[in-house]
Amino acid sequence: MSPLLLALGALAGGVGAALRYSADVAILRWWGPPWGVFVVNVVGSFALGILTGAAPSAELQLVIGGGLLGGFTTFSAVSVTTILLAEERRGRTAIVNVVGTFVLALAAAAGGLALGAALATGVG
């Protein structure tokens, strides 16, 4: 990996993290916790699925997938949000947050992979 590619991936990761924060804040204003991080992770999983299914160059996958979308999505925020919900005695919401994020992020990634593959082959 070249130093330039590494720098681009790191820069894209910073942009992704800033986008995550902005989206999280905006969504929280409308719906409250845990919806900000929940939506970000599902959307990010879908986008990463599309990118992976479309199979662009390894360099683009590194910068956009590993950098931008890696910075955008976050497992640690799901963990912290879940703990905070449990501490607020919102156990049912905490469980739905963990299970829902896992199930919907996987479904979104699978849908994104299928769409990306279809786009790459010109089907659809």
Which of globular, elongated, flat, extended, rod-shaped describes the shape? globular
Q: Which sequence of SSEs, written as H and E, runs from N to C?
A: HHHHH
What's the N-to-C terminus distance? 34 Å
The computed structural class is mainly alpha
Q: Which value, in Å, is the CA radius of gyration?
A: 16 Å
Oligomer category: single chain
β-sheet strand percentage: under 5%
- Outline the biggest β-sheet: none
| Count of separate DSSP helical elements | 5
Q: How many runs of DSSP E, i.e. beta strands?
A: 0
DSSP helix fraction: over 70%
Q: In terms of topology, how is this protein built?
A:
Layout: H1 3-31, H2 35-54, H3 58-72, H4 75-87, H5 91-121
Helix pairs in contact: 1-2, 1-3, 2-3, 2-5, 4-5
Structure description:
- There is one protein chain.
- With 124 residues, the protein is mainly alpha-helical.
- Helices cover 87% and strands 0% of the residues.
- The protein is built from five helices and no strands.
- The chain has helices spanning 3-31, 35-54, 58-72, 75-87, 91-121.
- α1 (3-31) runs antiparallel to α2 (35-54), α2 (35-54) packs antiparallel against α3 (58-72) and α4 runs antiparallel to α5 (91-121).
Descriptive labels:
124 residues; mainly alpha; 0% strand; single chain
Task: Give a quick precis of the structure.
The protein has 124 residues and is an all-alpha fold.
